[in-house]
Amino acid sequence: MGAYILRRLLLIIPTIVGIMAISFAVVQFAPGGPVEQAIADLTGQGKGAEDRLSGGGDLGGQNMAGADLDSKYRGAQGLDPDLVKRLEKQFGFDKPPLERFGKMMWDYIRFDFGESFFSNEKVLNLIKDRLPVSASLGVWILIFSYLISIPLGIKKAISDGSAFDVWTSGVIIIGYAVPSFLFGILLIVLFAGGSFYDWFPLRGLVSDNFADLTWYQKIGDYFWHLTLPLISLALSAFATTTLLTKNSFIDEIRKQYVVTARAKGLTDRQVLYRHVFRNAMLIIIAGFPGAFISAFFTGSLLIENIFSLDGLGRLGYFAVVKRDYPIVFATLFIFSLIGLVVGLISDLLYTWVDPRIDFEKRDV
């Protein structure tokens, strides 16, 4: 197992480099880069780009008549070519793409993600500031969905075809069909000061007086703010995990080894939890990395916007819109790295659930 883990860890390096290289290459052909964004600010408002230029100064006297008709940037016609070159240097686009990519990867290996193009703050600090929101949404919804969905899926598998199985399946399918953001809006209307009750807060992860509360009041305030967002996200998470668990257990229950175990005198509970559970849970464990990444990083953008939660979803979205490449590439690097590590952890869980699995005898 040690050799397998080492191979997987070493494989992370070329995988990360490949992901970043493909993304970097795509970005080179994407219109509306940061230089064009700065030019748009400059020509539209007169100050947006000037304030971001290193060295500052009054650019109002620049020769705007020296139009660069062959400029590669949209909207740069009419601007002094020297000004455009200063913008390129400000954003690091004065160097060849390969040199920029190499420097970026060298910095990322040392977890130096630089500064945001447009907020002049360190990218790592921006991610740290918003991580608690995404962590709260992702971790709790993952815990709740697994704690509720797995027992529910097992119960549905045991009572397959019963009235309980039918009506719970109906509720789950309807819940899955309702978009989480639409259900979130409904909860706001009903319980967050919309047209009916004003029971829950609408903004933020904690209250303004959070620092003045006692420890148990802080816990209550924290979950008070999380109640509606978690309920909104719970629908699709419950449906997927519950039905996957049910189908996996039904498939195992119908196999011959279950009949043999019952013939030997084992009770249904012993058969279920000693034999079926171990085999049926393999597919659930296989889906854990994807569920973790989805819930933790990508599943809460709309919910963050609806409930005014400043998390990683909103940070990444506005970075893409604004072409703030340091944030875009830093979040991509971190998310990819975490995804690959979680995938390795999933394989290790395979061997813990079923010791018969030996990755040493298989190719990576």
Automatic annotation (TrEMBL):
The lineage of its organism: Bacteria, Pseudomonadati, Pseudomonadota, Alphaproteobacteria, Hyphomicrobiales. The chain crosses the membrane at residues 9-30, 133-154, 166-192, 222-245, 282-307, 327-353. This is Microcin C transport system permease protein. It is a multi-pass membrane protein. CDD domains: TM_PBP2 (cd06261). It is found in: Cell membrane. PANTHER family: INNER MEMBRANE ABC TRANSPORTER (PTHR30465), INNER MEMBRANE ABC TRANSPORTER PERMEASE PROTEIN YEJB (PTHR30465:SF66). It comes from Rhizobium aquaticum. Belongs to the binding-protein-dependent transport system permease family. Its main location: membrane. PROSITE patterns: ABC_TM1 (PS50928). It holds the Pfam family BPD_transp_1. Keywords: Cell membrane, Membrane, Transmembrane, Transmembrane helix, Transport. Residues 131-346 form the ABC transmembrane type-1 domain. InterPro entries: MetI-like, MetI-like_sf.
